[in-house]
Amino acid sequence: MLDTTSFPIMAKWPPQHPDRLQLYSFPTPNGVKASIMLEETGLPYEAHKVTLADADVKSPEFLSLNPNNKIPAIIDPNGPDGTPIGVFESGAILLYLAEKTGQFIGQSATDKHRITQWLMFQMGGLGPMLGQLGFFYKFAGSEIEDPRPRERYINEAKRLLNVLNQELEGQDWIAGDYSIADMAIAPWLRGLDFYGAREVVGWDDHANLTAYLDRFLDRPAVQKGLVTPARD
Ligand SMILES: N[C@@H](CCC(=O)N[C@@H](CS)C(=O)NCC(=O)O)C(=O)O
């Protein structure tokens, strides 16, 4: 049985079902990776809305689970050693859930390494670069007159899209069967629309990518994960 006092975050976001996996998130490209994976696996879970406002994501309660003040984070009351465990960083959460369930991580060790490599590509490349593109193209950074940061991230986004588009030639998913790598990558591709940046990165010129994103968005678990937890 989970001792809720051992996780201070539970004082601010109390669990209704302490026996279930607890998700602390918001439906952003990083947040939905975790909710989509939870929906795909069918694991019972409870979602708590942690907004990006300082009062939530920088609260002492949230920092007690993720000192890096970023969603998503989870607590699994049934951790691998028979004790509860907290996990933050979306890529680590995807790997954790894949290992816990044996799902979406391939069948063989070779599959697993291939999937992990594309997961790392997203975590270290696609996510941070598109995130900066969003900042310099749509948000506060778009007011900066110096064009160099904007151009740098536009060019890097184009380069990364080309890498993915080529890799997807002749295949439905990025690393063999549908996997956690797709759950990490596709939400960021969807985010380009939110940034109003599709045209500037030549999105429509990447036929493999546009079909890939449509394929991803067709999945019922993805549709549910994209709105979990609800924004309001
Ligand atoms: N590397 C982290 C990044 C997570 C991240 O950037 N989360 C954003 C929302 S997409 C956030 O919580 N921002 C709040 C803040 O920075 O204060 C991960 O993949 O989990």
> What small molecules are bound in this structure?
glutathione
Quickly count the helices: 10
Overall shape: globular
Low-confidence stretches: none
Q: What is the succession of H and E elements? A: HEHEHHEEHHHHHH
**Class inferred from helices and paired strands:** alpha+beta
Helix content: 40-55%
Radius of gyration: 18 Å
Mean pLDDT: 97
Features:
single chain, 232 residues, 10 helices, binds glutathione
Describe the protein:
This protein has a 4-stranded mixed β-sheet, covered by helices on one side. Strand 3 and strand 4 form a beta hairpin. The chain is globular. The longest helix is centred in the middle third of the chain and has 29 residues. Helix 6 packs parallel to helix 8. The chain has 232 residues and is α+β, with helices and mostly antiparallel strands. The mean pLDDT is 97. The protein contains 10 helices and 4 strands; from the N terminus they run αβαβααββαααααα. The site of glutathione (GSH) has 12 residues, from helix 5.
